[in-house]
Design a protein that fits this description.
alpha/beta; 3-stranded antiparallel beta sheet; 409 residues; ADP binding; NB-ARC; DUF7779; 3 domains
Length: 409
């Protein structure tokens, strides 16, 4: 990431899912700026709340000016005044901004000598403009994930057995890869060994990282814990209470693309209304999805005719881990009902059929046993009909044989 006096962008906002390495990127920016002599004042502010920001600002103002103000608000105002008038190079890192509103009146000034880097999971519109550039940080590519595994396991290369499959299963998420390699090195597991434990649905993510062990690569929380605060925040945004159950529904579907119409299907709205004890409309559900998008818990893709929501596989797994058996059964059954309701009677668009079949397959992976109680769910046979209509004879035969084997098991 490059911020320079030659551009109008003096504030870079690193935005993305928890665990993609935003803070690590900020550390790299800070180290590079300091080593190059570009800045003489470098400050790191943990910006998880407005109180934390005010306190850190006041402390920094006192260090820079030698004046202790009676209140954090006054100290913060002194710091902003100093930053605006300073001719020496400065870099301010605002790490882990939980709510953009916490920065109202506290954004560092845009000057020729200063730079600001913000890390956040939020995607709110206020994070753009006014000299700010939002930079979306995503997970590793498959090649980057494999390179990371090779580097971390270089001294014990035999542990790389199954590396490609593990990288794919972990969604190439830096935090998940860091946690996995640390466990592997400590326990002598190969990538295949770790993958077997990861894919065992009887295990939770917590069980793969014993409590109290230090985290690698300066990460602050485990995969299992890293999204809990984001989910809580999303669930508190208007309309309150809608985001969490929507994410539970999304956790059992295809991470690569869930039709957004599914979340506003009658079955979904009926379930939300019953769960929250108040009427939940299609507009409420759509706003709930937007809340999850703002917190980077899913990504809404409205660029094509088929609007979909994409969810990282690790977010799905962490969400599933927090579901009771009854909640998991409800989520699978509800998703199946909603799929049937949004499935067109005539598939004029092959992309629609392919997407719905992919979601049915994901649903079977997440909890097929719930789709056969008390008898086979309609969605299983709707997917079979859809596959038949594509003309893919071999795939259709295989699918029907699989259904038969399951039904007669």
């Amino acid at each position: 990431m490059v911020l320079s006096s030659e551009t109008t962008t003096k504030t870079g906002v690193l935005s993305g899912l928890g665990g993609v390495g935003k803070s690590q990127i900020a550390v790299g920016v800070a180290e590079q700026a300091w080593a190059s002599g570009e800045v003489e004042v470098l400050a790191w502010v943990t910006a998880a709340s407005r109180e934390a920001i005010l306190t850190a600002y006041a402390r920094l103002a006192a260090d820079l000016t030698g004046i202790e103000d009676p209140t954090p608000e006054q100290g913060s105002e002194r710091l902003l005044t100093w930053l605006a008038s300073s001719t020496i190079g400065w870099l301010l890192i605002l790490d882990d901004v939980q709510d953009p509103g916490d920065l109202n009146g506290l954004w560092p000034p845009i000057t020729s000598s200063g730079q600001t880097v913000v890390t956040t999971r939020r995607r709110d519109a206020v994070l753009r403009g006014h000299g700010r550039q939002r930079i979306d940080v995503s997970e590793f590519t498959n090649g980057e994930a494999l390179a990371y595994l090779r580097t971390r396991l270089a001294d014990q290369a035999h542990l790389l057995d199954g590396a490609d499959e593990l990288a794919t299963a972990l969604g190439c998420l830096p935090l998940a890869l860091a946690q996995a390699t640390a466990s592997m090195l400590d326990r002598g597991w190969t990538c295949s060994d770790y993958l077997a434990r990861f894919t065992d649905r009887r295990r939770t993510l917590d069980s793969l990282w014993p409590e109290g062990e230090p985290l690698p690569d300066e990460h602050r929380s485990t995969v299992a814990a890293t999204w809990s605060l984001s989910i809580e925040q999303a669930n508190q945004l208007h309309p309150a209470g809608v985001a969490r159950p929507l994410l539970q529904l999304a956790s059992v579907l295809d991470p690569n693309g869930i039709p957004t119409d599914l979340f506003t299907a009658p079955a979904s709205l009926h379930w939300l209304t019953k769960a929250l004890g108040r009427e939940v409309t299609a507009e409420d559900a759509a706003e709930g999805l937007a809340c999850l998008h703002r917190l980077s818990l899913l990504t809404l893709d409205n660029r094509s005719t088929l609007r979909v929501a994409r969810v990282h596989a690790m977010v799905q797994r962490a969400t599933q881990d927090n579901l009771s058996e009854a909640q998991a059964a409800t989520a699978v059954s509800l998703a199946a009902d909603a799929l049937v309701q949004v499935w067109p009677s005539i598939e004029r668009d092959t992309t629609v059929g392919q997407t719905l079949r992919a979601n049915t397959a994901a649903l079977r992976d997440a909890g097929e046993k719930h789709l056969w109680y008390p008898c086979g769910h309609t969605v299983l046979f709707r997917a079979a009909l859809s596959l038949c209509e594509t003309g893919l004879v071999n795939e259709t035969v295989d699918y029907h044989q699989c259904l038969y084997a399951t039904a007669t098991y």
